[in-house]
Amino acid sequence: MNYRIWRVDDDVTAVLVFLHGIGQCSADYHRYGRAMNRHGIEVWGLDHPGHGLSEGEPDTLPPIPHLVANAEILLSMARAARPTAPLVLAGHSLGAGVALLAMHANGPGAQEVCALALTGTPSREVIMELPGPPVPALLVHGADDRIAAIEPVRRWASHSPAIEFREFGDAGHDLLHEPVRHEVHSLIIEFVRRTRPGRTFGTVPPVRLRALGHHPPALERPISAPIP
């Protein structure tokens, strides 16, 4: 698996691990990474299998446990590289769902996460049946999202004290690439900058990933060196 880093050389205020959506790759998020960098937020972005420079079948959705396992590894690597900076897990669409599942899988990397920043969160039943996240979470959604309907996500978010739900009436699914992206960037930056380690909303039962129809594997290949 390949990943890239938008590095911050001095005064790192937070480290954000970003998981992209299906049909995308980390290279699609240069504007997002640079926007975060300007405020001291270092971004680590993973290419899912079959996406970007990672090997795999491009037209096949990888098994969800594989994606969760890869996210966990990248979280642990980011924490090892930046042991004192607040660690934030972010994702868009498929990546937002994987981020939530990773938090409930509760691996060592996920245990270091102090906040979630999600856009276009999937409205699939397997995600909407999850308990609320155990850390503060910002969920941003487009009111005109025709891929992930907003109403189930809004309803799910309303039941969790951990979630700050924000919607954009003039946006669809791909918030980080639409005209509202600058406002979304600012919202995420402000959320990350006020996030502090240690604030939790209790413990949650871990998700049984086998229930999704796949068996969690060992990674076949280690994640590669960062891409410039």
TrEMBL record:
Give the residues annotated as coiled coil: none
Pfam assignment, any one: Hydrolase_4
Serine aminopeptidase S33 domain ranges (all copies): 12-120
Q: Which molecular function term from Gene Ontology is one that the record holds?
A: hydrolase activity
Q: Which keywords has UniProt assigned to this entry?
A: Hydrolase
Q: Does the keyword Hydrolase apply?
A: yes
Q: Which InterPro entries match?
A: AB_hydrolase_fold, Hydrolase_4, MAG_DAG_Lipase
Q: Which PANTHER family match?
A: PHOSPHOLIPASE-RELATED
Q: What is this protein called?
A: Alpha/beta fold hydrolase
Please report the organism this UniProt entry assigns to the protein.
Answer: Nocardia acididurans
